[in-house]
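Handout, tutorial session.
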Amino acid sequence: MNKSILKAIEKLYSIIGDRDILNDIKTDILTENTCRNGRAVLWYLTENTDVAIYIDTLELLTETEKEKELF
């Protein structure tokens, strides 16, 4: 993993709380995705939590951005 992804993971998990990152990756709760706009995001998705963060700027995606860029 590169430094940008590690920083994005750090920020994302500071928001959602302490979790088992490796398990989240293995079970596809935490995924790296490419948006329609071409930007890379980390997306944490469970039935109770839906958080996505741009890897390059560490900005969280709004609900509108998630719907437009990821669905």
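The second record follows below. Compare its token runs with those of the first.
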Amino acid sequence: MGMARYANPNPQDRVFFAYDRALKRLGLPGILIQVHLCMRGPIDVEGLRRTLPAIYRLYPATAARLEQHPITGNPRWRLDVPEPDPRRVVRVHQLAPATQEEFHRRTEELLREPLELTHRPPVQFHIFRGLPKGDIVTVRWPHAFMDVRGSTLLLEDIDELYRKPRPLADLSSLGDERRQDFESLTNVGGLREQWRTLTASRGQREPRPPHDLFLPSEPIRLPLGRIRHTVRLLTPDQTRQTQEASLRVCGFARFGDFVRATALRALHRVMGDRPRAGDTYSTLNLLDHRKRRQRGPVCQNFFSGLPMRVPVALADNRRAVADEFHRQTEQIVASGGIVRHLLTVRTVARLPIAALADAMYLNMRPDGASALPVALGTPPSIQVGFSGASPTASPTFCGATWDEVYGIGIPPPLSGFAVDLNLTGERLHLTATYYETRIPSHTMDALMDDLAASLQDPT
């Protein structure tokens, strides 16, 4: 009898596994992501199901099952398992009544549903039918399995194999289950040099800055209640206005800074008169570590979240905020901060999953205190995910053309909400998820309306 085969999560994945466990202690479904492809017409469901075995050949981890080591409890993906039944992986739902409101309700219902990973693979599909325009394909996966860029590449490969089928005998693994991309980023110098890099800023970092502002003004109460979401879809013309506004405000190649500065200003405006001199807002600058000409890795998390912090006095001035993000990022790069961050992730990920989850759980409690920094369990004031347009994307998926594509996920309990933007084709899509017990719907609508309008405003 042969030995079992596994795909071991990289350090970033392990951090997400710990965060998943901490969320579940609060009665949440764990850290998962849902991407919605709104199609024109019906997709070929049976064609999608026929394509999945080819995907399982290219990316064996997409057919894996989640296991925990019997001694250490460490998570891992078991590869030598029976191939998933495509009928259980791709499920079809008829909307009744066939309205956008019903789909909205079903989306929030699905967001609260934990992913079953011991008997099903990590990437799962739900097809919602009945709307006049066409099907909506909802793709779900645990964040500990891959990031949003990885999902984009995976969906592109599914559509490519659907349009141009290849014999299974001609396909073999692309090697995601064996890659060591994250580890290679931290293999700089010897152990002594790595230790010096890791401890370079020792003693200079605050566990949690006492004046970081959060939108919710009340302590966390359990249960957290429903996870709500709201969506804003910009037209191609509005998207072009947004890109022109970014050029006017921030200059060339600064779109990410522009988006986060605009989101931070929207947060500041809905805060009202709560901010005081000395208060700060925090967010994350997300860096994708993939090489420009390299598609992979797919089935890994391969990005970093660098903490950014600005005083409230700057919050109304988007150019000043964007420049501050740029200055802080350059400072982090020049001081070796990216490698230091990656080494910190690698070091923290070596802790027992249960101990790391306990530290993260403390960060989510109003009476807790943890030494974990922002980006490693402590949420920023506003979490803004941004995904740019893929240069290799086709506007189709399994026999139909998509009109809109957007993603949502589980928001941090302490900050109470998360904002995500993605540029797909010629359209910018904005979404927010939030806890109804933490933030009123009218407050989140005001923030999102301000954000959507301000993105198009060049002043």
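Points raised in discussion: The mean pLDDT is 91.
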